[in-house]
Amino acid sequence: MSGSNATAPNDSSPVLNAVGDGAAGRFVADFKATSGQLSTNGQSWLAPMRSAAIERFATLGLPTRRDEAWRKTDLRSLARTAFRPAAEVVAPDADAITARVAQLAFPSVATTRLVFVNGRFAPEHSDAYVPTDAVRVEPLAHTLREAPELAQPHLGRVTENDADAFGELNTAFMTDGGFVLVPDGVTVVTPIHLIFLTAPADGPVAQYPRNLFVIGDGATATILESYAGVNDTDVYLTNAYSEAVVGVEGNLTHYKLQRESESAYHVARLQGRQENESTITNTNVALGGRMARTDIDLHVDGSRCETIMKGLYMAHGEQHIDNYTRLDHAQPDCHSHERYKGILDGRSSAVFTGRILVRQDAQQTDAIQENSGLLLSRDAALSTQPQLEIFADDVKCTHGATVGELPENQLFYLRARGISTEEATGILAYGYANEIIEDIEIEPLREQLEQLIRLRVRERFAALKR
Amino acid sequence: MALLDIRNLHVSVEGTEILKGLNLAVDAGQVHAIMGPNGSGKSTLAQVLAGNSDYEVTDGTVKLGDEDLLELDASERAGEGLFLAFQYPVSIPGVSNTYFLRAAYNAVRVHRGQPEMDPVGFINYLRPKMAPLGMTKEMLRRSVNDGFSGGEKKRNEIFQMSVLEPKVAVLDETDSGLDIDALRLVAEGVNAMRSPERAFVVVTHYQRLLDYIVPDVVHVMVDGRIVRSGGKELALELEDKGYGWVEELATDGEAVTA
Ligand SMILES: Nc1ncnc2c1ncn2[C@@H]1O[C@H](COP(=O)(O)OP(=O)(O)OP(=O)(O)O)[C@@H](O)[C@H]1O
Ligand SMILES: [Mg+2]
Fold it and tell me: Which among A368, A367, A322, A317 has a CA at the least distance from the CA of A342?
């Protein structure tokens, strides 16, 4: 990314000077040391936006378990780790990157693919993008340089939301990511696949992907974000931030597939806003990471909207996966259906928080939330917290949560047909997860997920036999 | 030698004895019917034979051919050729009927030392077995028994039996909940599979099924034991007189063979 430096290090800020040398202090010090190199793409507004963000981050500090939204997620090991900004690091093994991209891509269907390695756009792994006046699928850094007027009105402004430490950190350090603009009335049939790979060298790194999706009135698009590492022993932090606005009668199908290294930290946020009669279908699949936290915050600001939030997470070993979803119904006559499922094995743990806010004007809201977990091991732990806050009087909201083991009667039925306990467990766990993935329209994505689920379940029995 | 040989079987569930010294010998080529009042232990027998570990065998032996059935895990029993058509078939959301059937069929083949069958070969194997039991492609695509009507579930059990081709099939009230046409389909499905190498144990409450599947022997089970055995006319007698008169035999503690 090019662009001149318009920022002076914030030596004058009392907040930044007061932050000390703890975890937050390390990020602030990095900012001071590197903000000269952070791109402003020639935009005078970008440097102050970054500075304001790091100041808010310094005030907030990293979350701790005293913060209500982080009660069940321990960030101490993340806080102890010193991460260098990944953008400074050249990925060490080019062949491994190429191989990993090939694993994550879907050769059997057409996609428009943009690949980012250590936070920087990697044209050699990406499809050529041809910026036109019509549809744009391109690196955000490119947009900020060439057509900032398309991004600036939305960047950091898609929703009004409370300051959030990781979100601020992303804004301070953001390097690049996908920019998708679909003009009014246009349907983009080809799925857009954004791949974010991290490959540290000489110690832990942090990357800060930033995506912006602007779906116009009556426009339609399918976007998939894939996050992955190259080696399961690689230690890094992905701090991603995506914003999506869907116009009147617009339709966004959004997938996030998280397959980070099992030694990595992943913190990601999706902020979405819907206008009248629009649809967002979000599917959030989390398989990787030592600690992975995803925040999804959708603001339904139009009437007669449809919002679907589906989630599937699978953790094993010592993994911890935390999904925090928030759905804000502000307008009448909307439907939402949220459904999360998790499969936990080993000594893994997971948290699901599902907040649904139905504001006073949101009459006739029909909101369904379901979440459940399957525990394959006695040492695994799942904590679920539905939080319904309803201020309208004429609404239909239901929620339900179940956590348990595979039903004995189903296992016996399969075994009575000749299927071994081990294979029966695999079939049932797959069937359990299948409900979340069975109507994924990108067929190779669905098949890839089916395979990953089966593999995970088989692994467990291989471990038991040893 | 009987193909299925049950001797002095005692079974408890949660500390209560349900089967109290049951004897039953079924030869290859035969159909035996078991009738008896609610709660007498018919399903308990069926579940124990299939290897449900909720039931504790406290005494007795069960042999399937030369195999000591009680030593085998449920899946091994199926591999050895035992099949149970469940009184209450279980739904398995998210797993298609075809996938399930192929997994079962291949597991049984592997147990018998045969190679697994590939998906295309398996579809060809299934096809001729579908129409006779009124199974549609759509039913095979759907999740196992999920949203199936009571009758569809029962037909699916018999369809599974025809796919797995067991040596001994135990049908637990497969006729309950079937309409007249489905009853005929199921009975024809069973009759088509009758062979000199195969045996059936048919648990039913209704004489009507036995008009279609004509049994060689009819047993009456009361309070965990077979209290009377006879020819197919015993079923007619029961239909006529109810279970009162055989229940008295049970309290005498003496099994009577007509
Ligand atoms: N899992 C169980 N836990 C407790 N009791 C059980 C269990 N299974 C069976 N029983 C008891 O064992 C007895 C026999 O039940 P079983 O289901 O074998 O009867 P059945 O002859 O099949 O009756 P039906 O004609 O109603 O199907 C009943 O009293 C039943 O309540
Ligand atoms: Mg019964």
Answer: A322
**In which element (H, E) is residue A237 found?**
strand A236-246
Distance (Å) from CA B146 to ligand 1 centroid: 24
Residue of A nearest to B76 (CA): A418
Strand partners, A382: A350
Model confidence pLDDT, tens digit, residues A390-406? 999 999 999 888 888 88
Report the pLDDT value the prediction gives residue A1, as an integer from 0 to 100.
40
Top mean pLDDT of A39-43, A49-53, A461-465, B253-257 is at A49-53
Instruction: Give the distance from residue B46's alpha carbon to the nearest chain A alpha carbon, in angstroms.
Output: 11
Please state, in angstroms and rounded to a whole number, the distance separating the CA atoms of residues A190 and B11.
Answer: 62
Q: Give the count of beta carbons closer than 10 Å to the beta carbon of residue A394.
A: 9
Question: Using CB atoms, which residue from A418, A420, A431 is nearest to B95?
Answer: A431
pLDDT tens digit string along B171-221? Answer: 999 999 899 999 999 999 999 999 999 999 999 999 999 999 999 999 999
State the DSSP code for A344.
E
- Taking CB atoms and an 8 Å limit, are B92 and A414 in contact across chains? yes
On the question of pLDDT at B257 being above 60, the answer is: no
Shortest CA gap B188–chain A (Å): 22
Which value, in Å, is the radius of gyration of the alpha carbons in chain B? 18
The identity of residue A234, as a single letter, is: D
User: pLDDT tens, A285-301?
Assistant: 999 999 999 999 999 99
Which of A174, A151, A131, A175 is closest to A1 using CA atoms?
A175
How is chain A split into domains, by residue range?
86-406, 407-466
H helix count then E strand count, chain B = 10, 13
Residues A357 and A326 sit within 8 Å (Cβ to Cβ): yes
Q: In terms of CATH, what superfamily is B4-251?
A: P-loop containing nucleotide triphosphate hydrolases (3.40.50.300)
List chain B domain ranges.
Answer: 4-251
Distance CA(A425)–CA(A458), nearest Å, equals 9
pLDDT in tens, A142-158: 999 989 999 999 999 99
Question: Is the confidence at residue A7, as pLDDT, over 50?
Answer: no
pTM: 0.85
Contact A406/B at CB under 8 A: no
Tokens 């981050």 sit on residue? A57
Q: Distance, in angstroms, between A337 CA and closest chain B CA?
A: 19
The total of other beta-carbon atoms located within 10 Å of residue A128's CB is: 6
Q: Best of A341, A343, A412 to disrupt the B interface by mutation (most B CBs within 10 Å)?
A: A412
Structure tokens at A112: 């428009």
Enumerate the residues of chain B whose CB falls inside 8 A of the CB of residue A343. Answer: none
Nearest CB partner across the interface for A431, out of B74, B89, B92: B92
